Amino acid sequence: MKQPLIFRKLIVDDRNELFDAQGMRFAEFPSDLSKVRHYAAAILADCPRDFLEGNLLEQQLSELIKNGIKHGNLSDPQKKLRIWYDLRKRVRFIVEDEGTGFQNLDEWNEFFRRRQTALYEQDFDTFLGLASYRGPHSDETDGGNSLIAALEYWNGGMIYNSRRNKVGVVRWYST
Amino acid sequence: MEVSFEPGSRPGGVLATVVGDLDLYASVEFCNLIVGKMREGFPRVALDVHAVSYLDSSGVGAIIRLVQLSRALGGGIALIGLNGTPRKVLEMSNIVSLVKLFTDKTLALAEWC
Predict the structure, then answer these.
(1) Which end of chain B is less packed: N or C, by CB atoms within 10 Å?
(2) Are A148 and B55 a contacting pair at CB < 8 A?
């Protein structure tokens, strides 16, 4: 029997515990898109090896940083990207930019619902047309799929604040 | 990131070996190189990615665009040697179902391009 289709979605919740930064370390970076991977590497410099999963953690953290700098701060060098992080027992980040927020979040959730429905129904022609999300400011360097992988990767949650310029994420690891 | 091309074994087929990271800094150049080869008349592409150890959403987006264009031109995309983080990223993005996978170049040349 076919498994039922379960939709994940991006959630807005200001009061979520993922925004509790107590005890977390902090770093602040200028909005330099050419240094996205450098910033991620700096944050993860003393991360326990088991959490890195090759370079998968660096890749997923880089996506959060890139989204904040490019889509949040619009690469404005006057705007900062702030990151709170905790690499003990599990990996947790809060990433905040100074932009106007991810205003297309509800539209993205609807896009993702249609995309996953097409995949579930093995309608690959429709799925191929929905493989990448294109927002109003997407360009050729935007893959349009970072949030899709992120919802899968951040297995303990991915939550936005109501202004939608701050995201909290956590990944748990089996012992 | 570097791409080198070899002739395929059938009309319209080509094998492209990719070395380096497919990230936000390299994905546009990567995509343009493969698109150029497709438009030369080689829409059936096998990408040898065994030497690609880093793939981000920009690289995934490039692969999606290549799949879309190759199918529009009557071809398709296969990946050779997809492993490690790039494989996990493509799986998390549900893109693996859109490409044919081969473990080695010999098989891809015999069965795909």
Answers:
(1) N
(2) no
- What per-residue confidence (pLDDT) applies to A5? 85
Sequential pLDDT tens for chain A (175 residues): 778 888 889 999 999 999 999 999 999 999 999 999 999 999 999 999 999 999 999 999 999 999 999 999 999 999 999 999 999 999 999 999 999 999 999 999 999 999 999 999 999 999 999 999 998 888 888 888 999 999 999 999 999 999 999 999 999 998 6
Q: Could B57 and A146 be called an inter-chain contact, meaning their C-beta atoms sit closer than 8 Å?
A: yes
End-to-end CA distance of chain B: 23
Amino acid at B69: L
Distance in angstroms (rounded) separating the CA atoms of residues B95 and B72: 17
Residue A86 lies in a domain: yes
Yes or no, beta carbons of B64 and A149 under 8 Å apart: no
Kindly report the pTM of this predicted structure: 0.95
Contacts (Cβ under 8 Å, ≥6 apart) of A137: A71
- Is B111 part of any domain? no
Q: Contact B64/A132, CB-based, under 8 Å? A: yes
Residues of A in contact with B58 (CB under 8 A): 141-143
Residue B21's domain comprises 2-105
ipTM above 0.95, yes or no: no
**Residue B9's domain is classified under what CATH number?**
3.30.750.24
Q: Which residue from B minimizes the CA distance to A134? A: B61
Task: Give dist(CA B90, CA B67) in Å, integer.
Answer: 13
- Pick from A57, A121, A119: nearest CA to A92: A57
